[in-house]
């Protein structure tokens, strides 16, 4: 048997790789060539129980560790991640199919940023409670206390970033975590666990299990688990939230979107085009916040589309390690077939006008390795003259498919932008900032941008409205999702107000 590029551990708890009891295996695939990268073992219920026991045993001591000391350990972990940036980025490139030019500058870096942010926040008193003086002889104070053993369930599009977005606030708040990567992109799990251990995170505080939906279901319903944080599609998120709510677990759900990007007639056309390209084609369109409904005022449409077609020549496929490559394949064969199905439906059923792209494979530069032609590559695709009732406009495709729509009035644009059960993100392009603020205030979305798209720094709390999620991640509010409040009232008067006085 030919050896595979990676031989990762499939189970990590107690501060080290562990031998799984399970014998059920699955493969992870390099989507650029459709070739196997590694074989992993799916965690059995017994494996998960062992990991959870390790986390439960570690929790009391980690929770009692002073916040500043936890912060120092996690700051060291962030430093190690930065030092190993390129190594981790190569793993992400192989596992996700993203170009190295992207993973090396975004995925790992932004994950480290969040870990550093929460370590600094907590280390400088971010978990301090409040004090209120009620009267001269009575006051109230609050404490923020960790929840216990928490579960993080990751998505396949930003593997290590999402793992850090969940584990950073979880661990800094004093909780322990069982993390399940997506079975589609699982390789980062062991790397992150080993980095935490190297930095000084005690055994049992951060643990990895592997596998598919059945593993996630068992984690979500486990009686020891206090909280579940999930990132993924809406339908799965509803099931996870339902299971967790049944046993009164805390939840954070970061789910899908079908976000509107509004271009006003006074917008700088080049800025709007660049923004629309970032909102549709970055990460091959596999971003939950993508602005795939591009609403343009009618008068601007011809100029916008002309410049868009010109700039699409800057989208470059090829070897993922080539610094000039900026567009990769879709993550898996299953997702490839799904996205192609939407493109086919847009052409044949919705009858939208195909402005660019379609079902043909992209053209590779001359001299490209023939193996790449076996991968899950699609072309950036643009439909124009779209209608709100088209399936490609209504449903989340999660691929590089842009739908261009036109509108007459701003009131119409806002109404149509909000006409969806999803509410993850939205954005406005205009030179009139007063108008932009007024429009953003009316858009029903938890994440909004003005004259930009996609940036999500550690300081920015992000989360969806409506069916796009529950709770937020990152920013100061992000730590609140990983603690519970305890309020105490102290009465120093020496007297008790009673309803039962002696007559």
TrEMBL record:
Repeat in keyword set: no
Enzyme Commission number, as recorded: 1.2.1.3
Every Aldehyde dehydrogenase domain range: 24-487
PROSITE patterns tied to this protein: ALDEHYDE_DEHYDR_CYS, ALDEHYDE_DEHYDR_GLU
Keywords of the record: Metal-binding, NAD, Oxidoreductase
Catalytic reaction equation(s): an aldehyde + NAD(+) + H2O = a carboxylate + NADH + 2 H(+)
SUPFAM superfamilies in the cross-refs: ALDH-like
Signal peptide boundaries: none
Superkingdom of the source species: Eukaryota
Pfam family, one: Aldedh
Active site per database record: 254
First-tier enzyme category under EC: oxidoreductase
Gene Ontology terms, MF aspect: aldehyde dehydrogenase (NAD+) activity; metal ion binding
Family per record: Belongs to the aldehyde dehydrogenase family.
Protein name according to UniProt: aldehyde dehydrogenase (NAD(+))
Source organism: Patellaria atrata CBS 101060
């Amino acid at each position: 048997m030919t050896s595979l590029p990676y031989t990762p551990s499939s189970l990590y708890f107690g501060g080290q790789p562990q031998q799984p009891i399970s014998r059920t295996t699955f493969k992870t695939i390099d989507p650029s060539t459709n070739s196997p990268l590694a074989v992993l073992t799916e965690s059995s219920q017994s494996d998960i129980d062992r990991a959870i026991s390790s986390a439960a045993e570690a929790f009391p001591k980690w929770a009692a560790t002073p916040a500043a000391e936890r912060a120092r350990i996690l700051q060291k972990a962030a430093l190690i991640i930065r030092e190993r940036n390129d190594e981790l980025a190569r793993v992400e490139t192989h596992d996700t199919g993203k170009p190295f030019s992207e993973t090396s500058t975004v995925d790992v870096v932004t994950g480290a940023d969040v870990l550093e942010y929460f370590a600094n926040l907590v280390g400088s008193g971010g978990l301090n409670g409040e004090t209120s003086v009620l009267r001269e002889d009575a006051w109230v104070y609050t404490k923020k206390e960790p929840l216990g053993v928490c579960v993080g369930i990751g998505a396949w599009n930003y593997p290590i970033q999402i793992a850090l977005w969940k584990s950073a606030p979880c661990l800094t708040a004093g909780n322990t975590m069982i993390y399940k990567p997506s079975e589609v992109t699982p390789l980062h799990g062991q790397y992150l666990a080993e980095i935490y251990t190297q930095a000084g995170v005690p055994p049992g505080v951060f643990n990895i299990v592997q596998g598919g939906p059945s593993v996630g279901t068992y984690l979500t319903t486990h009686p020891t688990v206090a909280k579940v944080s999930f990132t993924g599609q809406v339908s799965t998120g509803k099931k996870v939230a339902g299971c967790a709510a049944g046993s009164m677990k805390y939840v954070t759900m970061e789910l899908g979107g079908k976000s509107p990007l509004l271009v006003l007639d006074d917008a700088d056309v080049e800025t709007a085009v660049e923004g629309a390209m970032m909102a549709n084609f970055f990460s091959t369109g596999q971003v939950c916040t993508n602005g795939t409904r591009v609403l343009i005022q009618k008068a601007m449409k011809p100029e916008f589309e002309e410049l868009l077609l010109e700039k699409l020549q800057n989208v470059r496929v090829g070897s993922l390690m080539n610094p000039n490559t900026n567009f990769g394949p879709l993550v898996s064969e299953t997702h490839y077939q799904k996205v192609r199905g939407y493109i086919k439906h847009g052409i044949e059923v919705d009858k939208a006008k195909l402005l660019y792209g379609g079902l043909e494979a992209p053209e590779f530069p001359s001299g490209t390795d023939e193996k790449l032609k076996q991968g899950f590559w699609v072309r950036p695709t643009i439909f124009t003259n779209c209608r709100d009732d088209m399936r490609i406009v209504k449903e989340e495709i999660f691929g590089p498919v842009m739908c261009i729509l036109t509108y007459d009035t701003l009131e119409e644009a806002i109404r149509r932008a909000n006409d969806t059960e999803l509410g993850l993100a939205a954005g406005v392009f205009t030179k009139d900032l007063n108008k932009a603020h007024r429009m953003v205030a009316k858009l029903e979305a938890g994440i909004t941008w003005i004259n930009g798209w996609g940036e999500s720094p550690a300081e920015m709390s992000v989360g969806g409205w409506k069916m796009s999620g529950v709770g937020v991640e990152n920013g100061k509010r992000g730590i609140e999702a990983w603690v519970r409040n305890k309020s105490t009232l102290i009465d120093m008067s020496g007297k008790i107000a009673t309803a039962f006085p002696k007559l």
